[in-house]
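Support case: user asked for a sample of complex input and structure output to validate their parser. Sending the pair below.
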Amino acid sequence: MFKRVTFEDWQTIVTLIAFVLTFAAFVFFTVRAFFMKKRDLDQRANLPLEDQDGEKSDRS
Amino acid sequence: MNQGNSPTTTIEYNDRAVRYFMLAGIIWGLVGMGAGLLAAFQMYFPQLNLGLSWISFGRLRPLHTNGAIFAFVGNMMFAGIYHSTQRLCKTRLASRALTWFHFWGWQAIILGAAVTLLAGYTQGKEYAELIWPLDILVTLTWVAFAINFFWTLARRNEPTLYVAIWFYIATIITVALLYVVNNLQLPTSALHSYSIYGGVKDALVQWWYGHNAVAFFLTTPILGIMYYYVPKAANRPVYSYRLSIVHFWALVFIYIWAGPHHLLNTALPHWLQALGMIFSLMLWAPSWGGMLNGLLTLRGAWNQLRRDPVLKFFAAGVTFYGMATFEGPLMSIRAVNYLSHYTDWTIGHVHGGTLGWNGLMAAGMFYFLAPRLWKAKLWSQSLANLHFWVAFVGILFYVGAMWASGITQGLHLNAVSDDGLSLKYQFLETVQTIRPLLLFRAIGGSFYLFGWGLLMLNIFMTIRGAEPVNGTVEVPASDVEATRQTEGTIGWIGTVFNWPFIYSAFFIFGLLGWIVGQGLGDAGDIIQVLGIGVLTLTTLTCIVHFQVTGRKWGEWYEKLIGNWIPFTVLTFLAVFIGGAIQIIPTLAVQRVKNLEDRVQVPYTPLELAGRDIYVSEGCYNCHSQMIRTIVPDVRRYGDYSRLGESIYDHPFQWGSKRTGPDLAREGGVRNNIWHYDHMHNPQEISPGSIMPPYPWLLEQDADYAAIPGKLKALRVLGVPYPEMTPEEVQAQIDEQAQGIVDSLHEEYRTADKDKKIVALIAYLQKLGTYEDVDAAQARIESSKVLE
């Protein structure tokens, strides 16, 4: 009768594991993102604008 | 990275492939949306099924969904990825052969899908209906795409990987993982197979796939496209590059866990339901962060929206992304899902995403690309603006109607008397109440499709007689050198065997020991102490190490984001762990020997033939087979569905929508005559029903010759069938079919025992039949199958 209870009890641990793993990774990448140098950020943010393909002149 | 006096090389992009993918996306968009519109009108006018099997709703709807997702958005996304990646990497696509194999392979898949789905060949899993030969072709084509993409990254002449590329990488590896895992199947013929998963396992894997198909096929590539094309169109950089980084990593780490929210209040174990709900709620933040980042990129350019249709489409598309990603987590709250699940609300939500987010972004991108790829001015700005407003009004009609319809359905079907003992509305009453809204939906869809026609006209007139051009770029030698240096600094081994990674791993293990040890008794205390010890030691060692050596933690990260191989490996790990933690325990544990209460009785050969017909006709598109653990469901359909009651269903048929009622306990509720007459003409038996007629089931023969092979395949998959010769199988079929035929003859219905209707009636009458676990275990032992 209690088979399901037993299985589900140990399986709930994975939700904790999931949370810890994702939260740790998320914090790491967020911290890195916020400590990036402004020069690097600007250079990366402008990458799509480096290539113009003569496109602006075609835009009406 | 342009360096002043460095010698340069001229590179010509392969924009021909971009043009082909773009035109394919436009044409398939018309087909996919056209199929959807016909299906929408069929719901209001069931006569539009015309009594033809190949355009009946159950077959048409998979064509619509697969067409919209894989044919329309797929081709659009490939056009955007190939166009932007070449420019962001300042290099030409690596392989001409792979590019064209990718293009023609994808179009062949779409054509194959259109033919087979309408002919009734399907796996019976939503958005994964394609039969196994097409699945193999999808895999090969995707591999060609992946090789071509990563090869292009390896040849790039820009040291930095822009965030759009990150989203493309996540798309490529995650879709590959999802598609292969969900489509593992055992073929029984050239056109038929059974999923290797059954019941709850299939449900979990399918919705892990289904949810993440939305996440990684309809969202992440389009976000990459947003991060490239919105800045291009507005001619200003993305609002916050920092935010785009957080957006990416948060989505990759969170999205993959949220699949079980499609199965709330069902027989799915509760820990998985909780996991799905919590991670869905966590998605709110990054999704809105990304949406705001996209919209704020237009800061200072809002005035351009008045005259520039491209920006209009992008701004509205990103806004719909925000709306859909607000609505999704909301619907993942169990209490809200109680109301929304199995109703038109879900359909409204999905179309807010596909028509609003994907469709408007696609239109914006096509209007942006056409003048550039053919070196011509857009034929008519006014027509593009008209397209925008027609499409926008169409979406509002569509989504508004579906919200109203879905909420009405939910409120009606869940309404019980105060004592909880009786229902307030019959199913057909609700159907009649929402019928006008179904018409509104179809009208909204007509608007949207009309708008698409305007786009086709505009693009056709733009490119007619114009000269196709390939973009070029001058690449300084210094950029090439800088790129090669970046690529060579970390490598495969350095990805994992470096101090930041190792310290992180120890830190997480320590933290887990501390948390998991709680409540595990004496052993748990030791685990906790060890966890705290590892945590403390790791932190102190880490601080001392970095202080003494003068190294910086961020060095590894900086190298990582410039190197596509380790970046890809870590992204893969992020999504793989998310999938594995959900799926592996379920695959391991959910077996008959671990079940309680009830276990499904395997289908007889005739019932199995009937089930295959049920799947082939796409009945799951309108009927669920899952009575949720909520009072109204139990009052309406019977005792709630147990996990074991579908354990032998390959594929599971829990469904996601109740256009018609649930059928989990249909067996024995109505007699054979009722089913016969109902399939022949539903409206005659159930006035007000919107179910299409299935006259061909009374005329076509079932394929009984294939049943022995199918039984053998199911035995391999663990369904406890005894070993039977083909003659024994046929004898069983004949006997059971004759019983049904006799019962029909008693009421003057003519039916031959070979007809599909007989097998289908046998199947419907079996639904809900179960036995206790001891009997089920004895059946397994006597059949000698390996569970």
